[in-house]
Amino acid sequence: FTVDAFSHGIIPGCRAYFLSHFHSDHYQGLKKSFSQPMYCSKSTANLVVRQLGVSVQHVHRLPMGEPIVIHDVMVTLIDANHCPGSVMFLFQLTDGRVYLHSGDCRASDELISSPELRRVKLEALFLDTTYLNPQYTFPPQESCVQFAVKKAKEAISSNRKTLIVCGTYSIGKERVFVAIAKALGSRVSVTAAKKKILDCLEWPELTEMITSDWSAGQVHVLPMMQVTHKGLAEHLAQHGGSNAAVVGFRPTGWNQQKGQLGLEQVRASTRGPVTTYGKLK
Predict the structure, then answer these.
(1) Would you state the pLDDT for residue 280?
(2) Order of strands across the sheet that contains 124-126
(3) Which among 253, 244, 246, 212 has a CA at the least distance from the CA of 230?
(4) What is the enclosing helix (H) or strand (E) of 18?
C-alpha cells in the first residue's frame, strides 16, 4: 500500500494507492491516464474524477468510519479535520499490527478521542509534520472562525456597503466563509470554476449558499494569493457593485510569524477602501 505517493508513478508491488485529500502537494503526479486501484473518501473521489479526469472505474470511494477489507487489510477512514474529504487512514493487518497515516490533519480533542483510535494500539504512526514546531501556536479553529465572523459583522455595522472576501485554496477554508455568510445572511459568490469544485463536496448547506453571480452575495471567495491590497482593490472595482469598501481574510497558517501567540495579536492592515486580516489558520 502507498499513501499520497503518486509522484513516484507506478510503484512495483503496490496493489492499492490511497489519497488522503485533494490538495495538489498530495495528489501531485496523479493524471487522467492513471489506471491503478485508488482509494479515498467520497468527496475526494468526486474531485479526482471531475477535476483530474481519472476514470471512475479506478477510483474507489470509501465510507467514513466503517472498516473495509482491502487485500486482507482492514482499512478505516477517520476525519482528518483538515479540508472537506480529508482523512487519516487506519490500517489493521491480520497479524494484529495497526498503522495510522495522518495525511494533513488538525489535532483536536475530538480527533484524538475518536473511537477508532481509542480501541487500538499503534505499531507505527506516519505523521505529517508541517507545523510540528513550537513556534506554531495556533488558536482553536472555531476561535479563528468566530474572530473572522466578528470582524466581518463589525465591518458591515460600520459601513453597510462593505464587501467581505475570504481567501481559499482549491478546497479548504469553507468553514470560515460559510460561518461569515450565515452570520450576515448572505449568499457566497464564487467563480464558475470554483462552484464546480464546491459542488463535488456534496455539502447541502454550502450548495444552497454558493452562486456564480458576483452581484448576488456580499461574501465573495477568491484564491488566497488574490487576497492582497492590490488584488482586493481590483476585485472591488470589477465586481463590488455598489460596495464602497472591502474587507479580506487570509485564513492560512503560512502567514504565521514567529512569536505570534493568539488572535489578539492579529491586526488589520488598511489602505484606502481595502482592509485585510491575515495570520489566521
Answers:
(1) 43
(2) 68-70, 73-79, 87-92, 98-101, 124-126
(3) 246
(4) strand 17-18
Q: Residue 236 has which C-alpha cell?
A: 472591488
Name the β-bridge partners of 125: 100
- State the pairing for strand pair 17-18/2-3: parallel
Q: Are 54 and 38 in contact (CB under 8 A)?
A: yes
Residues 174/175/176/182 CA torsion (nearest 10 deg): 100
Contact 127, 102 (CB under 8 A): yes
Question: Residue 216's pLDDT is what?
Answer: 96
Residue 261: the pLDDT is: 53
Backbone phi, then psi, for 220, in 5-degree steps?
-115, 150
Structure confidence at residue 253 (pLDDT): 62
pLDDT profile of the chain (281 residues), mean per 10? 95 96 94 96 97 97 96 96 94 96 88 88 89 77 91 96 95 94 97 95 94 97 95 96 95 59 77 84 40
Residue with cell 466578528: 150
Size (the chain), residues: 281
Q: Which amino acid is at 129?
A: T
Angle between helix 174-184 and 141-158 (nearest 10): 40
Under a CB-based contact definition with an 8 Å cutoff, are residues 67 and 94 in contact?
no
Global pTM?
0.88
Say how far apart CA 130 and CA 55 lie, in whole Å. 31
Residues with Cβ within 8 Å of residue 32, at least 6 apart in sequence: 52, 53, 54, 55
Strand partners of residue 211: 189
